[in-house]
Structures are given as C-alpha cells and as structure tokens.
Amino acid sequence: MDNVKQVLNSLHPLERKTLPFLKEGITLNELIGKTGLKDVEVMRALQWMENKGIIKIRQELKEVIELDRNGEDYKIKGLPEKRFLQQIAGKKEAKVSEIDVPAAELNIALGMLRQRAAISLRKDEKGELIVSATDHGKSLAGKESLEELFLKKLPTEVSQLQPEDRFAYDAFRKRREIIKTSVVKIRSVELTELGKQILNEKSSLKLDVIDALTPQVLKEESWKHKDFRAYDIKINVPKIFAGKKQHYRAFIDMVRGKLVSMGFKEMSGPVVESDFWDMDALYMPQFHSARDIHDAYYIKDPKYGQIDETIMKKVKAAHENGFGTGSKGWRYAFDVLRTKRLLLRTQGTACSARKLASKDVEIPGKYFGITRCFRYDVVDATHNCDFNQTEGFVAEEGLTFGHLKGMLKMFAEEFAQTETIRIVPDYFPFTEPSAGLLAKHPEMGWIELAGSGMFRPEMTKPLGIDVPVIAWGIGVDRLAMFALNIKDIRQLYSHELPVLRSMKVMY
Known about the structure:
Elements: H1 2-9, H2 13-18, H3 28-35, H4 39-51, E1 55-67, H5 69-77, H6 80-88, E2 94-95, H7 103-115, E3 119-123, E4 129-133, H8 135-141, H9 146-153, E5 156-157, H10 163-173, E6 179-191, H11 193-200, E7 209-210, H12 215-220, E8 227-228, H13 247-261, E9 265-266, E10 272-274, H14 275-278, H15 309-321, E11 342-344, H16 349-357, E12 365-374, E13 386-395, H17 401-415, E14 421-425, E15 431-441, E16 445-455, H18 457-460, E17 469-475, H19 476-484, H20 497-502
Parallel strand pairs: 7-8, 9-12
Antiparallel strand pairs: 1-5, 1-6, 2-4, 3-4, 10-11, 12-13, 13-17, 14-15, 15-16, 16-17
Helix pairs in contact: 6-7, 13-19
C-alpha cells in the first residue's frame, strides 16, 4: 500500500489526467479521445507509467480500413447513387441531365443503381436519357444502405469485419479513393498488478498538487495548503546529444596539447614530398628492400621537384662513402634524378629531416609533428591507405638509449594511460639502435604504439647535426583506437550519427 501511495504521489500531470480512463486493453487512440490530450502527450504519459511499472504497452501490427479522400466527402454528403436516387424517388420520370450529381460521379451512380434494379432508363424522341425509380428503388431511397452504415464504422480493423461489412468492404475496394487499407501499429494498455492496485486507489489521487516550486508559489505561500509531487529520479529520460568536437579531431588536439606541455615545439612539412626528404635524407638506400614497406603514391605531373644542391651532395656522399662518419656508406652510385621524384609523404620522419637541416633548428631542442601520411594498403579494420603519425626528436649532447626508453615509458602513460608496456628490438634504416613500443589494452591485447631509435650519424651529419638525436614515431590512429576503445580504424573518420554520439568526450 505504501508503494501505491508513493507511485500516486509521483505522477506527472499528464499521468494524472490519463489514469482515470485506464482499463485493460484500451488503445492509444481511445485514450486520446477520452482525455482530450494530444497524441504525443498521451504517449508520453503511458511511457512514464510503463517506467513506473503501472502498465505495459502492447504493440500489434493490424490491417486497418480508413476513409480515403472520396470516402470523407461521401460520409458527409452521402454516396452519389443515394443522392441520385433521392432526387428521382418522388418523380414519375426525370431527365438524367437535370439530376444534381457531379459529372465525375454520374456514371458511377447510374451503374450502381442499374446493378441493384433501382432505376429504369430510356431515351426520348430527342435521344435524351430519361430515368425513373423502380418500386425497389423508391424503398432504397428511404433507408441506409449497407455501404452507408459501413462508412460510419470506419476506421476499423479488417479482422473485425462482420459478413455484411465484408460485402460493403469488397464493393468499395473496387471503387476509386473511397477507402484505404494499411498496416498500422496499434498500441494498447495491459495493466500490471501494481496498475490494478493503483486503479483501485485512484479515488485518493490528488489533482491539486504542486509540480514546480516557482517564485510565485513562494510569494503567495500557496504551498502551505498543497502537496508537492514526488520526483522519480530513476525514471528514464531522453538522451541529450550535445554538440561536441569530432572524436578523432579532439584526440589529435589533445595529443598536440600534451606534447606542447612537455616542452616540444611543433614542426611541419609538405604532404607532397620528394624522394630525397622522404627516404634518401633518412639514409635509406635507393636500391634497398627497406623501401618496400613504404608503398608510395608517386605523382605523375609534375614528376620531379627541386632539391637544395648543397644538402643533396652531402647526402649523396653519405650513401656512397659514409661522409666521414667512419662508415663506408652503402657504396653505390646515388641517382640524383631519382631523388627528385615527387610522392605523397609516406612517413612523418621526413619532417624531422627537414627540421634538422633547417637554419632555425635549436640545439638542444625538442620537436614534434602531427603529419598525414599515405601508403598503398588494403583497407580493413586495422589498416588504411592514409593515416596520421605523431613523430619527433630530441637533440642534445650526452643523450643515450636510456633516455629514449624513459621517454617511451612516459608516452605510454600519457597517451595510452597504461604502464604495462614492452620495449622490443626493431629495425629502421635511419636509427641504430632501434626499438618498438608495445602497450597492453584490456580488450585488444598488445598493440604496437610506436617505433623509435637513435638517428644514425650517416643521417644527421650530412644535415649539419653533430650531437646525439633520439627519435620516435607514434601511429596516432592506433593510439586513438587504444584510447577510444575502437576496434575498427574506419570509425575514427566516421560521420555516422550513432558512432559520433556514442564516442566519449576527449579532455
């Protein structure tokens, strides 16, 4: 009983107006008619009462017959055959041209009446059609037909048709736009045990309660003699999808903000890059199979770009003889035309090479870039043909591999929120030693987050750098998948509303 009173006290005004009319099996349309509320208001009241356990809303698909355009008109004015018959019932004969029935309905009326032997037709000496009502027709003029009675019953369900209704239904289906049959969703009410108890106690329902505490209520002190409606904090409420930044865009901005807060300066470079900066300046031999992992998209027009001749000669020497680094180089004839070929950037390290060779590079210094890269690949849940990398380097006297390991650990904690990591041996043509960073995701298992290493002297010295440089590159796409708990890389770029709405807000 306490539960019943508690529920009664928590009813919304719409529920209070709907409750007195509730009964087993009553439909939504019936409640709309009895309460005088709008359909959306009744539906909202029923949903709230279902959430409170008072009712269950049943939904059934049923064939329903409704009036069509002509049917609405005939229900008010009468069927054309009935109007025709009533005009001639009191006359011996009449000219068809003098009957007040629209031309579009005249042939229908004549056909229906002749079919029922309600009229007789003849032509006079001038060839004009003359009509007269038969005795049977005169009797039909004074009573409602099965069809007229049927129109008054609409809307109704096909399954509820009586035999005489079926006759009228079949007849109207052959005529134009009188009735229409459609499959509709019928909502009806099923009372729960709690609902039955509440209906038994509905006489104690107080209609004059305060639903909102307003300044006027406080000023007039009307609350002193009224009850407040109890609020149900467990009730389901509509989700609000507030505007927010696209999840991957927000993640990239977060990564940029964290790197800047760590003291890194941002660098950039062109998307259309040359072979020189994308590979040759990184001490990747032009003939080596290492280039196979960089399935580049080459530009057709223009095919070649311009390279600074001074820097190119130094890089050429590093490839051919080591450029005085103690290395013998790759010992092949460097192709100066091939190095000018244009392509879509395959790796962000091209920006590092450009920055190290620039006049404004600071030593000691820390730099990062967030770069869009392109490689030919088969698109699936974990691969894409274009992707983002964040990469960078630290250049300072006295740097060791130990510093690199500490930086990788810090990146895993900051960007992947995990301390469960592995630093494993790896290979990159421009670093020695090289290392890969793996992090463990609670659902996806071990994920490769970054590649790293110490830039080789054969790469840095031709670019004018004589101090140790530790470098790293992180696949931002995979990092975002890790942080956003996404298992399909394509969802990073999704524009589908369900995906966008389900993504958590990035800080």
